[in-house]
Amino acid sequence: MQSNVVVLDNGGGLIKVGLGGERDPSTIIPNCLYRPLSSKKWLHPSPTSSDDPLDLTSASVRRPIDRGYLINPDLQRDIWSHLFSSLHIPPSQSSLLLTEPLFTLPSIQRATDELVFEDFNFSALYVADSPSLAHLYEASLRPTGIVSKAQCSLVVDCGFSFTHAAPVFQNFTINYAAKRIDLGGKALTNYLKELVSYRAVNVMDETFLMDDVKEKLCFVSLDVPRDLKIARKSGKDNLFRCTYVLPDGVTHTKGYVKNPDEAQRYLTLTSGDQPAQNKELDELQVTETPKDRKKTDLTKNEFDLTNERFLVPEMIFHPADLGMNQAGLAECIVRAVNSCHPHLHPVLYESIILTGGSTLFPRFAERIERELRPIVPDCYQVKITTQEDPILGVWRGGSLLASSPDFEAMCVTKSEYEELGSARCRRRFFH
Amino acid sequence: MDEDASNPFRRMSSRTRKVASKMAAALASSDNRTQAALARLEALENDNGVIEAVEINDDDEASLDDDDQVYMQKKQSKSMKRKTRQAKALEARKAPRTFIELLHEANLESWPPHVPSYIRAAVGPPSSTSRRHFCAVCGSAANYSCVRCGTRFCSCRCQNIHNDTRCLKFVA
Ligand SMILES: [Zn+2]
Ligand SMILES: [Zn+2]
After folding, report:
1. Closest B-chain CA to A60
2. How far is CA B72 from CA A76, A121, B2, in A?
3. In terms of CB atoms within 10 Å, which end of chain A has fewer, N or C?
4. A14 and A123 co-located in one domain
């Protein structure tokens, strides 16, 4: 009997869902309910229409996932059930490949199994972690590359809730070596909200708007002291200044970048190590006058950004800037590698894979390489691959796995679950 | 989706914020700087606004629950088993569980030291002590910090803005 496999990458920010064997998921929707100002009800994001007509200005949001983990199974059930019925997926006639973050607590695993088998009646379940799936997909793209030949890589997954550096060996995540930074896209958006609210307009309630601002305008700096100086300049010399227009609720319900060309000017800056240019900048430095930085005006329908554009992604590289007592991404990678057998170190540094939506900031990979090079032994090569689509990479790996001939044997069936219970079944996925 | 059964005033009051209990604790603490820093980090994980939104009056909060009940019953009025789970869920919603609470209950400290766990996977403190500081007002390199709350600033101008508008914002 041929049964369909539903591949569900259940992220804290986005759900990616579709059928095993397909190249792309059928749909990607936010993993939340939201309540726009125009509605008294919590609404489901629409899985079908890509151009959502809803005005999400000041919408409240409820998420089933907190700090990466499923804490509200009831809310998750609502979201899944709406999703499955709109996609015409019959769970009782399907197997499920579900992603789950590393180190999920046993109580959360139990609640997840209940959801899958008791609420949705899936016929079988396989639980996978993101790093091994991202690895699998990259290995499939380059069958003769090092990731594939060594069956080994270091996956950096920088998603919505947190960031992991996780070594993968023989297609399994080495979980005792995985390291986590408690920062992801959600914290970055919230930090951007804070900065803009302090400096220009109160946007504390504008989650969806500020996600858009972050995605369109933030980038990773290759030289923070230099860029801070440039950001203080006035007029055309400030390569970072750009303007974002807020929705007015009448002619446009979404915000937009006022002058996209202006916003791209920072790309003319290339290398960070240019002593001559630095000196020149010191001399030219113009201290910002108060009128350059516009004062808070709640009636204004736009705001300017300058150094916020790179100070936000900067958090991932230096969480200590924010008062977090955690190492930044480069050190996180080194610690993950050092937790593995020394034989693996050279291969891991040579096969770093970036996945997750927060790796989409321009110059993310370049910056990691710059920070890694001085702290990785000279005899090792550092090679970083950004996934072609970091949001879909994990799902695509899941789709590959689900269409492999061994997949069925790897699953726990509903009757096994009923007979053995959650904890015993879970041992099968214990890698 | 569902017919409206909620309090018409909810929309207005849901925008107002009440100081959550941990904020109140922070306020009472003598060590404002530490508390303000912790509250600030906590705030970065919030879904709505900077301070966890808590409905300001109790009736209002109740109407939110009714809302959900209507919603849940529609979805799952099928079996008894689900009803009991739903009852449990409603109970749970009265005291929403955060990941930190679940983590605490899991008692990972009692696991044998060789078993990988959420706690052991944390990357740990940075190795170099060279901490950089940016001005909370304008974002420039900041060499000074506020004596009351520890927020960094770069100049008198930014210090004044800080004092006027945001000092201890995360606490009060
Ligand atoms: Zn300043
Ligand atoms: Zn202060």
Report:
1. B48
2. 12, 18, 11
3. N
4. yes
Q: B136 C-alpha to center of ligand 1: Å? A: 7
**Is the CB of residue B156 less than 8 Å away from at least one CB of chain A?**
no
Domain containing A371 equals: 141-184+319-386
- Nearest Cα residue to A75 out of B16, B60, B76: B76
- Any domain includes A313: yes
CATH of the domain at A51: 3.30.420.40
Q: Is A103 in Cβ contact with B121 (below 8 Å)?
A: yes
Cross-chain CB nearest to B139 (options A118, A307, A319): A307
**Pairwise CA distance, residues A389 & A396, whole Å:** 10
pLDDT at B21 over 50: no
User: Tokens 């400096």 belong to which residue?
Assistant: A199
ipTM: 0.87
Cα distances (Å, whole numbers) of residue B68 to A32, A55, A336, B4, B98 = 14, 22, 43, 11, 19
Q: Is there a single domain that holds both residue A112 and residue A11?
A: yes
Q: Is A204 close to B122, i.e. CB distance below 8 A?
A: no
Minimal Cβ distance to A335: which of B72, B108, B123? B123
pLDDT-flagged residues of chain A (< 50): 1-3, 273-298, 431
Residues 94-153 of chain B whose Cβ lies under 8 A from any Cβ of chain A:
96-100, 102-103, 105-106, 108, 114, 116-118, 121-127, 131-134, 136-141
pLDDT in tens, A91-111: 999 999 999 999 999 999 999
Q: Tell me the HSE value of A28 on the side-chain side, using a 13 A CA sphere.
A: 15
Residue A136 domain-assigned?
no
Same domain assignment for residues A200 and A278: yes
* A213-238 pLDDT tens trace: 999 999 999 999 899 989 988 888 89
Q: Is A222 exposed, middle or buried (0-12, 13-18, 19+ CB in 10 A)?
A: middle
pTM score of the predicted model: 0.82
Residue A16, beta-bridge partner list:
A9, A28
Does B139 contact A195 at a Cβ distance shorter than 8 Å?
Answer: yes
Q: How far is the CA of B122 from the centre of ligand 2 (A)?
A: 30
Per the structure block, which two tokens stand in for A223? Answer: 């030289």
Residue with tokens 């803009």, as numbered in its chain: A196
CB contact under 8 A, A43 and B2: no
Task: Using a CB–CB cutoff of 8 Å, tell me whether B93 touches chain A.
Answer: yes
Question: Which amino acid does the sequence have at A382?
Answer: V
Q: Which amino acid is at A14?
A: L
Cβ atoms of residues A15 and A8 within 8 Å: yes
